[in-house]
Amino acid sequence: MSIDVNNESGTEVDEQAILDIARYALARMRIHPLSELSVIVVDTDAMEQLHIQWMDLPGPTDVMSFPMDELRPPSKDEEEPPQGLLGDIVLCPEVAKKQGEEAETQHSMDEELQLLTVHGVLHLLGYDHEEPDEKAEMFGLQAAIVDGWRGEHGLTGASPAPTVS
Known about the structure:
5 helices, 15% strand
């Protein structure tokens, strides 16, 4: 799996954890091991520009996903998933920090960035949360992936509750 993490935010983040949880999520979703992903960490000004440009919404947001090859998890009867360019995930640590502090179960900026990375991966794979049934499926899968990764890394506690909109 080729995953690049590029921190352009000026904020120190745990880039290794972002890389590790992205790799874990893609493996768990059975994405071809030669697929490529880019994660870019930006400041609030850059995120706000992207949010306005692509979503026509004001202010910065926490995570945005820009799919490329529209890869999907393989069905149970597929032997080998296709490989390709997954796309880009853009994260904003300043928004993540605020969300972690305001969450029902407070958690760190890095924990929120890990959750947002998985959220972004799922969006790249075609998951959405516009409808209640889609939201239940996506957020359930997101929690399972974050909890599984945390368990493998000896981190205690359940995944932070979803704070993404």
